[in-house]
Amino acid sequence: xxxxxxxxxxxxxxxxxxxxxxxxxxxxxxxxxxxxxxxxxxxxxxxxxxxxxxxxxxxxxxxxxxxxxxxxxxxxxxxxxxxxxxxxxxxxxxxxxxxxxxxxxxxxxxxxxxxxxxxxxxxxxxxxxxxxxxxxxxxxxxxxxxxxxxxxxxxxxxxxxxxxxxxxxxxxxxxxxxxxxxxxxxxxxxxxxxxxxxxxxxxxxxxxxxxxxxxxxxxxxxxxxxxxxxxxxxxxxxxxxxxxxxxxxxxxxxxxxxxxxxxxxxxxxxxxxxxxxxxxxxxxxxxxxxxxxxxxxxxxxxxxxxxxxxxxxxxxxxxxxxxxxxxxxxxxxxxxxxxxxxxxxxxxxxxxxxxxxxxxxxxxxxxxxxxxxxxxxxxxxxxxxxxxxxxxxxxxxxxxxxxxxxxxxxxxxxxxxxxxxxxxxxxxxxxxxxxxxxxxxxxxxxxxxxxxxxxxxxxxxxxxxxxxxxxxxxxxxxxxxxxxxxxxxxxxxxxxxxxxxxxxxxxxxxxxxxxxxxxxxxx
Length: 523
Fold this sequence. Notes:
- By secondary structure, this protein is mainly beta.
- It has a single domain, classed as 6 Propeller (Neuraminidase), CATH 2.120.10.
- Helices cover 0% and strands 41% of the residues.
- It is built from no helices and 34 strands.
- The strands form 8 sheets. Strands 1-6-5-4-3 form a 5-stranded antiparallel beta sheet, with no helix packed on it.
- Strand 11 and strand 12 form a beta hairpin.
- The radius of gyration is 21 Å and the shape is globular.
């Protein structure tokens, strides 16, 4: 299927190399730039917007690969990030050559998740901003893209929207509402969507729904007794996207508590496992703080277990080593992947955690389950360089059960540098996480200080990695100096494993972990 469409609505983005023009290893191919200059018109939101709009910036990428055509990839991202939350809209890029080149869709072919993306006044997608992009392929090749769309000035309406593509991402159907709230004290946040790898009819969507005592509680509701609730909400389609069940609460951690980072993965046994961070803001039964946890469903989302804790969350966040300026990362967003081969029940989680540095520097934590998420191993550190901050990991499993983790770190930065030198790395394990190899993905460092500033230098709360056959497809954002999305392919021959995971320090009780609070404001 050709991607050569009129330039007025699509732009082909070619092979992109940085500085040295090639990747640092044989297994990781050259980078390909997936996004370029933005396609949204200035002041397209339908109302004046507050904050700083970083035009032509593409952040917070996610990617998936078609199960019926391994050459077809769809990458999504925020386009024109705004400092006070969200973006002018969501961008989409499509590849039909395995990610070697990309075509960036323009207005007219994008899902109409916002006014800037082409939504007509009064239509389902008529919102000032959009955020939290997500895309997933069903086993029949249909793709589903999800958006959190909201207003910032006209009113405080917000909605979870989904659009379906039946042609590999070239065109998208009109958005459908999964939930919409016009009450200014309610906000739906941090969504994800997962097509069932075993059944083309089933697609699952999940997010957290924040309910405040008044209009967003000015962002300080976590300091007020009985201030808010943040349960996990879920919906599904069982007819290939034709209809969606009414969204419902599947887990409520309680008054003044919330979940965030909900993401569903499906095991080879067909069970659903939802990863999340749970924040508890009081100290009932000594649980104040944050926990990485999962929920399970053995009936494709009809019913769910209660919370299954995996580990305390030990992140301390990431800062610019030069002056302590915040770097906004995936510090409270775990990433989950499952072995989807028939009969397999392995589940893997990664997240940011500082327990291995005495809670001084975030590292990459890894835990596994071999029984579909019912029980979990103790977390281990898997990033190669413990002396630097490592952050925003994404985990994926290939068709042979090998594991890949993509993440950023600052190992090549110096405090004296005028730039905040940041790199992307790919870890791989062929033995279930017992040992890991590492390769550099970014051919040269990029400057994080050139990224949009949204409560910190920001390239996204998450990044993506897809898998097809024995190849992994990392998809991430860099500032070079423009802030754009990039993809590459990591495939054999992989180097020998040189990383042995570091066990958690012994004797760490709950009191040793920093107190993490929920973040009940849209961002």
